[in-house]
Amino acid sequence: MAASNGEKSLIVSFGEMLIDFVPTVSGVSLAEAPGFIKAPGGAPANVAIAVSRLGGRAAFVGKLGDDEFGHMLAGILKQNGVSAEGINFDTGARTALAFVTLRSDGEREFMFYRNPSADMLLRPDELNLDLIKSAKVFHYGSISLIVEPCRSAHLKAMEVAKEAGALLSYDPNLRLPLWPSKEEAKKQILSIWDKAEVIKVSDEELMFLTGSDNVDDETALSLWHDNLKLLLVTLGEKGCKYYTKSFRGSVDPFHVNTVDTTGAGDSFVGALLCNIVDDRSVLEDEARLREVLRFANACGAITTTKKGAIPALPTVSEVQTLLNGN
């Protein structure tokens, strides 16, 4: 479904990349964990690698520490075919770390080490504007909105990408422990809401942003705005819902043996962006959009079958195997 690298338009992903330390065994607290495996992470970076692994063309824009972990992460992007032209290194701050608890059901809890980490210190004047202007899709989250100067860099990058004609894609990727308060998180996440043309939220994020206990159409559509072309609500093992100006519906999930949900949403987003970057008319054709979302659901499902996000992100052939078997 995603085409060869040579002909694809560029998808630029903006934000954080970090090291996740994942316990060697599932279902234990951080204190009980006998040891940890280091895994590269950070939602925007995961999306970039997801795109590249599916045959798309991706670049990452962000800041890493000028340390062993930072250079390791930049190397991982390059090894996975993602352009690292938008990366800056900070000599005064470390690469961000997160300790992640894998509960027995595969869900996660986080403890972050960022005080401040390099990603938080990206300045507007450090942005590779030529790279951002060349994006056909510009994708971002909300963690880069938490503190200055990264917040100003985020807003500047969005503005430059939009002026150059890019489609703006937003996955808030709520991580409450990183925000000063729930109120601030909601306020800042919504502060750029009306800029994005494609927005993906999880069912939990939908409830957080609306204050509702329901994940129904009425609740989802309360987040609609006039610039939106597509609003997606992912429902984990229950698939996803989609909303456009003209139609709405849901796409069934794929049932797999879930080991670790890390990166499933990022894999879903990468698959979606890969399949609309060169043909936005998909967003106005329900039959084709449903096909793309089925592909994206398959990508998300496969990603949950292995530990860690990046090692689990699928190739087109792996996705086709799952699609053909269902």
From TrEMBL:
SUPFAM superfamilies membership: Ribokinase-like
Gene3D superfamilies per record: 3.40.1190.20
CDD domains: bac_FRK
Molecular functions (GO terms): ATP binding; fructokinase activity
PROSITE patterns noted in UniProt: PFKB_KINASES_1, PFKB_KINASES_2
Pathway: Glycan biosynthesis; starch biosynthesis
Residue ranges crossing the lipid bilayer per the database entry: none
GO cellular component terms given for this protein: cytoplasm
Pfam families in alphabetical order: PfkB (PF00294)
EC number: 2.7.1.4
InterPro entries listed in its UniProt record: Carboh/pur_kinase_PfkB_CS, PfkB_Carbo_kinase, PfkB_dom, Ribo/fructo_kinase, Ribokinase-like
GO annotation, biological process: fructose metabolic process
Keyword hit for ATP-binding: yes
Carbohydrate kinase PfkB domain mapped to chain residues: 9-315
Family named by the database record: Belongs to the carbohydrate kinase PfkB family.
Name recorded for this polypeptide: fructokinase
